[in-house]
Predict the 3D structure of the following.
Amino acid sequence: MSRSNDRTAQYHPTSGYTYGLGKNTLQRIQDDKYDENREMNMYWPFPSRGEWSLGKFLAENFTQTQINAFLKLAWFDDQPKPSFTSARELLDWMDILPSGPKWQVTELEVEGYKVEKKVELIWRDGLEVVQSIFGNPIFAQNMSFDPIRVWEGNGPEYGEWFTANEAHRIQSSLPVGSTIVPIIAASDKTPVTRQT
C-alpha cells in the first residue's frame, strides 16, 4: 500500500459561528469592584504572597475549627500573626478573591427512606463551568470548536474526537450556527466540605 503525502482537511460547514465576544476571565476580574486594590497588590486582600499562600493552605487542608486552633497556637506569641484573625475572616477574604463557578448544595430526600443526617448533593452549574473554561484565555489556543474531516492520501485520518464520524453526525443534526461542545464530566475525591 502506497502512502501519499497529500493531506487535506475540511471543517464542518455549519459550525463555529461567532456571535460577538463576551468578556474573558481576566477582563471580568478587571471589572470587579476590588480591581483598584489589586493594582498595587495582586494578592489583595492578603498583604503578601506568603500570607496568601498560608491562607490557601489552611483553607484547603483544615476545617474552620482547626484553622481557629492554629491561629491560637502559642507559637504566634513570638512570631508575627497573620492579618486574618479567625477562620471566618480568612474565608470571607477567600470569598473576595476572583473565582470560578460557585458550589451549590441541594438537599436530597428519598421518599420512604429515613436518614439521621440529610443527604446533600454538592454541585456546580454545568453552563457556568463551560463559560468559565471557554472564557479562560489560558485555554484559548488549545480548544477546537469545529468538527473536521482530515484525509491523508485516499483515506480518512482519525485523531481527536472532532475528527470522528459521530462528531459530524451530531453537528449535522444541530441548527446552522450551533456548535457542539464536548465535555468530559468527572468527579473526584475533592473534599468540598472542608470549610464547614
In short: The mean pLDDT is 83.
